Amino acid sequence: MYVTCLDLEGVLVPEIWIAFAEETGIPELKRTTRDEPDYDKLMNYRLGILKEHGLGLKEIQETIAKIDPMPGAKEFLDELRKTCQVLILSDTFEQFAGPLMAKLGYPTIFCNSLEVAENGEITGYKMRCEKSKYTTVKALQTAGLTTIASGDSHNDLGMIQASKAGFLFKSTDAIKAEYPDIPAYETYDELLAAIKKELV
After folding, report:
1. N or C, where is the chain less crowded by C-beta within 10 Å?
2. 119 in a structural domain
3. With contact defined as beta carbons under 8 Å apart, do 61 and 16 qualify?
């Protein structure tokens, strides 16, 4: 049995932190896992900026409410789910993901959670498990499933390389150049065709 594991931000929906950076006019918040491979370092950097500007969960959720999936993302997911099980593995947070899952037709997502004070300040975060995407793919394989994986960032490489087949999708030129052995695609039609080819 096959399960396709997909990243969320940059693959199915725009990057939440980039959208929030544009909304608030704080360019430092545009930094993502494409730029910083160390997720703890990245999140602590983000939380410091939020605290400095007095911004909390409410303001981020207001931005998320305006974000729509990338054009064609829901149709791609719907078509893919006809052919195999699909699991979204994301380093985002459940407090962010809810409205986006509604717009994508409620696919299954495994993500992390934020620690939020009563006043709405984000005080920390809790990772679901260490190396969450890689660890989840290995656990699925232990359960007898064959995994296919696709993502765009440094934190997707573990699950991509550990799967029967893995693909970069809408990734950066730097990551594509660093990992020339991983097939890279730019359109949902290309990615869907590549995944379906593996389902034999």
Report:
1. C
2. no
3. no
Q: Are residues 143 and 55 in the same domain?
A: no
Q: How many CA atoms lie within 13 A of 143 on its CB side?
A: 11
> Tens digit of pLDDT for each residue in 139-175?
999 999 999 999 999 999 999 999 999 999 999 999 9
What values do phi and psi take at 148, rounded to 5?
Answer: -125, 140
* DSSP secondary structure code for residue 61 in this structure: H
The secondary element (H helix, E strand) that includes residue 169 is strand 165-169
- For residue 98 the two structure tokens come to 């809810």
How much is the pTM? Answer: 0.92
CB 86 within 8 A of CB 3: yes
> Could you tell me if 135 and 175 lie in one domain?
yes
Among 108, 145, 140, smallest CA distance to 1 is for 145
- Domains identified in the chain, total number: 2
For residue 38, the SS3 value is coil
Q: How close are the terminal C-alpha atoms of the chain, in Å?
A: 10
Tell me which residue range forms the domain holding 97.
Answer: 2-13+70-112+126-198
The answer on 173 and 82 residing in a single domain is yes
Residues annotated as part of the active site: 7, 9
Query: What pLDDT, in 10s, does the model give residues 34-70?
Result: 788 888 899 999 999 999 999 999 999 999 999 999 9
